[in-house]
Design goal:
125 residues, alpha+beta, Rossmann fold, three-stranded mixed sheet
Amino acid sequence: MRALQARAIDSPHLLLLEGGLAPENFTGKIRAFNPDLLLICDAADMGLEPGAVAWLSPSEMDGYSASSHTLPLSVLAEFVKNDIGCEIGVVGIQVGGLEMYQPVSEAVKRATEVVAQELAELFLG
């Protein structure tokens, strides 16, 4: 969500983290920020057209996961929910392919920009 980070540099009410391969490494920062909502945005294989966007429940993440995270995102979400007590939301963006080291498709790039714009409007006004 680098596109969203560029828009939210000065917002004290928004913490944006790029979790990469090990988003569980950021639980300390999440705990310190003490959010009301943790919104996870990730690539997902949902059987849709590349670039399709869907709201998912944390329990659906494992079934649709297309990531190479070291820990399933559903486990991370459950930990954060129990530890902090915040709500968890998930935005999945349909990947174009599952092969490692494959460049991001244009459809996925466009979807990422749309999601970033929508989230910026929602959270930053």
